[in-house]
Design brief:
- By secondary structure, the protein is of the alpha/beta class.
- Helix content is 48%, strand content 13%.
- It has nine helices and six strands, in the order αβααβαβαβααβαβα.
């Protein structure tokens, strides 16, 4: 971020992801959405919306298949500008995800200002499972987010006890090493075929 090269890395990852989704679609598959990160520097690019729309149009990707993740810290410096960019992206059909929710910064106050489609609960919150007060905190956080109409993804899940607790909270998605470590594309495709038959 300091030297600005992060914007080139962002664009490289977005384009690689669009190519991957386009390839799956061409093979007749019905891919689930893939989320990509948007760095703090890219968020202040006045042509960000045009750049991302241009990629999805070029590769003929339905916009709901490319989800956009912002970290909590990304919008602390100029929330008004970030909100405007988020709203433009949402109007274009993209879903906006808040990553690392609960890891610090100003999570709760940001929920009153910005509308996220999905909140990703940080692993530090998931690790509270098994602690009575920690579980109460998770219960009330999920109820609050659900009352706002947001979907919830739990990150960093590693045990069956965590999975069962999160299912009881009606989390929409659960991800983590309990299911799989991060995989290269070919191994991911094998994993999906093995577990879904697709």
């Amino acid at each position: 971020e300091r030297n600005g090269f992060i914007t080139k890395l962002d664009y490289y990852v977005w384009e690689k992801t669009c190519k991957l989704l386009a390839g799956w679609i061409a093979e007749g598959k019905k891919p689930s959405p893939v989320s990509v990160n948007i760095s703090r520097v890219s968020l202040y690019n006045p042509r960000l919306v045009e750049a991302i729309c241009g990629l999805t149009d070029r590769y003929h990707i339905p916009r709901e298949l490319l989800e956009l993740e912002l970290t909590e810290s990304a919008y602390t410096t100029n929330p008004k500008a970030i909100k405007e960019t988020m709203e433009r992206l949402q109007k274009e059909g993209f879903s906006i995800l808040m990553d690392d929710f609960g890891s610090g910064y100003s999570s709760l106050s940001s929920l009153n200002v910005m509308h996220f489609d999905t909140i990703k609960l940080d692993k530090s919150l998931i690790d509270y499972i098994g602690d009575r007060n920690g579980e109460k905190l998770l219960l009330h956080i999920t109820q609050l987010l659900q009352s706002f109409g947001m979907t919830i993804t739990a990150e960093g899940v590693e045990t069956s006890d965590q999975v069962e607790f999160l299912k009881n909270l009606h989390c929409d998605d659960i991800q983590g090493y309990y299911f799989s470590k991060p995989l290269p594309v070919n191994e991911f495709e094998d994993f999906v075929r093995k577990h879904t038959g697709l």
